[in-house]
């Protein structure tokens, strides 16, 4: 075995399969979770503002 080579399992795949899967899950969550949160907390339509009528002024007779 050379000094700098990575150990492999008998099937020829790297021994860090679990780390690769966990890294992939973390990467997907990093990409998808912010978009999902933004979509959940964003209103689909802008808020409507009700016009406020000015107070009525009574005229003295």
Number of helical segments?
1
* Uncertain segments: none
**Number of beta-strand segments:** 0
Instruction: Tell me, rounded to a whole number, the average pLDDT.
Output: 79
Shape: rod-shaped
Concise structural overview:
The chain is mainly alpha-helical and 61 residues long.
Structure description:
It is a single chain. With 61 residues, the chain is an all-alpha fold. It has a domain of 27 residues. It is 41% helix and 0% strand. It is built from 1 helix and no strands. The longest helix is centred in the middle third of the chain and has 25 residues. It is rod-shaped, with a radius of gyration of 31 Å. Keywords: Membrane, Transmembrane, Transmembrane helix.
Task: Write out key terms for the chains shown.
61 residues; rod-shaped; mainly alpha; 0% strand
Explain the layout of strands and helices.
Layout: H1 17-41
